[in-house]
Amino acid sequence: KLAYKAAYHFLHPLLRLYFVYASPAKDSARVLLVHKNEIMLVQNIGARRWSFPGGALQTKEFPEAGALRELREELDITDATIEYKLGMYDGKHHGEPVLVHIYVAQAKSFYHKKQWEIDRAEWFTLGQLPSNLSPATARRIGDYKNGLRDVLDFW
């Protein structure tokens, strides 16, 4: 098992480079997951910054369904409830336009179990967030703290 994990940690950044630079641009859904006064943040393997769980939408998948699917796939969270859409943000992937849908969801507990594509997953209080947030994640947390909903902006 240790050899598998070491090989994965070596190969995953290479696969990530492929998906970031060679895969087609796709819209995505991310989740600002809340439980009590804490939010869930993740670090994908090979990533240095914290961000929201989420990822690319599948063909013909509704963004809200994709957000819940990503919670299941990345964190084994099956009982979260989407409360509202924080916003829809214009982004770029390989210079191609994409939409990033962000949902605010409520978790029923602090339970999570990170899956293969996640290096770290932790709950943070809103007052003690990590210093190495991705800039877009920091902006979206600001939108959330300011009580915004249905934002249309740049990622």
Kindly describe this structure.
The protein has helices at residues 2-21, 63-75, 135-145; strands at 28-35, 38-44, 54-56, 81-93, 96-106, 118-125, 151-154. It is an alpha/beta fold and 155 residues long. It is built from 3 helices and 7 strands, in the order αβββαβββαβ. β4 (81-93) and β5 (96-106) form a beta hairpin. Strands 1, 2, 3, 4, 5, 6 and 7 form a 7-stranded mixed β-sheet that branches.
Summarize the structure.
With 155 residues, this protein is α/β, with parallel strands linked by helices. The chain is built from three helices and seven strands. The chain has helices spanning 2-21, 63-75, 135-145, and strands at residues 28-35, 38-44, 54-56, 81-93, 96-106, 118-125, 151-154.
Q: Topology, pairings included?
A:
Elements: H1 2-21, E1 28-35, E2 38-44, E3 54-56, H2 63-75, E4 81-93, E5 96-106, E6 118-125, H3 135-145, E7 151-154
Parallel strand pairs: 1-5, 4-7
Antiparallel strand pairs: 1-2, 1-3, 2-6, 4-5
Task: Provide the descriptors you would attach to this structure in a database record.
single chain, 155 residues, alpha/beta, seven-stranded mixed sheet
The amount of helix comes to 25-40%
Basic shape: globular
Question: What is the β-strand count?
Answer: 7
Structural class estimated from helices and strands = alpha/beta
Strand % is 25-35%
Average pLDDT works out at 90
Low-confidence stretches: none
Note the main sheet.
7 strands, mixed
| Terminal CA distance | 38 Å
Element pattern in H and E: HEEEHEEEHE
DSSP summary: helix tally: 3
User: Roughly how many Å is the radius of gyration?
Assistant: 15 Å
